[in-house]
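1st attempt posting a full record on here, be nice pls
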Amino acid sequence: MRRRNFIVCGLTGLCIEVFFTAVTSMDSNGKHSKKLEGHSSAWMFPIYGLASVIGDIYPRISKWPKLLRAFLYGICFMTVEFISGSILTRFGLCPWNYKGCPFSIKDVIRLDFFPLWMMAGMLYENILQKGPFGPFYISSSQNLDIET
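the predicted structure (as tokens):
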């Protein structure tokens, strides 16, 4: 994994999480909050940064149908969420808790979030394939190549 990809993926994940938690936040009465206050945790940066692995595996799976790649990404993201959530929970550091939520497994993953993780994987693939600021792709086996 290249450091730049890791940083881009980590920051992208944090931004998405803050936006997602703002849009889905509830006030004390159980209604959607109009304040749109989002939040995250510094623990999430390295977890989201792991999505940079997509940059390394994409060349091997680029010919697969998009839906199959999205399914693979969803499985990988949920696996990372389960492992990291379990470890952080063991030390009392887990910033999320899905206790009482439908389709939760051990309170650290939610199966109903699977389609969101599939979409996140495709977003990361697009960012790592084309770049967030222009058409470039960085993998660990090549230097920065600018397409013209």
